[in-house]
């Protein structure tokens, strides 16, 4: 059971913000500097996760809160505490010029009406710093996004692969890299033109994204080459995902100028070995990709061996 309305929408404007902040509830007694300290702290960071942490920390000084969940689809931000509790209150945050996503608070006892009022007053302090942080993230995402396919770009790959290697080392967890190269793509550009070639790349990127898990990181490295970073994924798991990607690319023809074109791809897989560098991991995946090309294309390979899968297309 939850309190609050799941679709409770708070539309803020500057005038409403002033009214809400000045409308101090019994829990926000005169002389209490929590709102002013919260305002100062929120203005010191553009990191969304840090802003939510600061907000919950300040809110917890006024009422009991055990968990928080924040969602925003554009840009993609999914944050949630390990524990949320049984009872929850939900808010959709809007400004006149922006939709700021949804935030929920949870605990193991019901929220009382005065407490809900405090939450709404405190949210009035969060919304403008949160909007600025979202705009900043959108700008960063644009710089790290391939404009054609909407996948991460090569610049993003260079950042994420280093981060994932660091995490794998720190937690002694599995990490795999899959490199993907479309087979005979040049003939598509030569026969149908570069605009139709771009349509093929966009469709292939969509198939890769839909096949991968939410935690997988997908990239277009340039031209017809793609990559997927698989965190907490061992050798066998990486093979399964790579095979799914290969089959997703070739299973259904792509429509080009009224013709059905079947695309295939070669995939190279490398599993991270403790202590190796980023360049070593990428090189081994690249060697595996070369092996897949050499063995006839439309297949997945590791660096050391290239098993012959049962090709379905």
How would you describe this protein?
With 313 residues, this protein is of the alpha+beta class. The protein has 2 domains: 9-143, Beta-Lactamase (2-Layer Sandwich), CATH 3.30.450; 154-302, 2-Layer Sandwich (Alpha-Beta Plaits), CATH 3.30.70. The strands form 3 sheets. It has a 5-stranded mixed beta sheet with strand order 1-4-5-2-3, covered by helices on one side. A 5-stranded mixed beta sheet has the order 7-8-6-11-12, with helices on both faces. A two-stranded antiparallel ribbon has the order 9-10. 44% of the residues lie in helices and 22% in strands. It has helices at residues 14-22, 34-42, 48-60, 113-143, 154-171, 186-192, 194-211, 235-251, 278-294; strands spanning 9-11, 67-72, 77-80, 87-95, 98-107, 175-182, 217-222, 225-231, 254-256, 259-261, 265-271, 300-302. The longest helix has 31 residues, at 113-143. Residues 1-6 and 14-24 have low confidence and may be disordered. It contains 9 helices and 12 strands.
Write the layout of secondary structure elements.
Blueprint: E1 9-11, H1 14-22, H2 34-42, H3 48-60, E2 67-72, E3 77-80, E4 87-95, E5 98-107, H4 113-143, H5 154-171, E6 175-182, H6 186-192, H7 194-211, E7 217-222, E8 225-231, H8 235-251, E9 254-256, E10 259-261, E11 265-271, H9 278-294, E12 300-302
Parallel strand pairs: 1-4, 11-12
Antiparallel strand pairs: 2-3, 2-5, 4-5, 6-8, 6-11, 7-8, 9-10
Helix pairs in contact: 1-4, 2-3, 2-4, 3-4, 6-7, 7-8
In short:
This protein has two domains: 9-143, Beta-Lactamase (2-Layer Sandwich), CATH 3.30.450; 154-302, Alpha-Beta Plaits (2-Layer Sandwich), CATH 3.30.70.270. The protein has a five-stranded mixed β-sheet, with helices on one face. It has a five-stranded mixed β-sheet with strand order 7-8-6-11-12, sandwiched between helices. A two-stranded antiparallel sheet has the order 9-10.
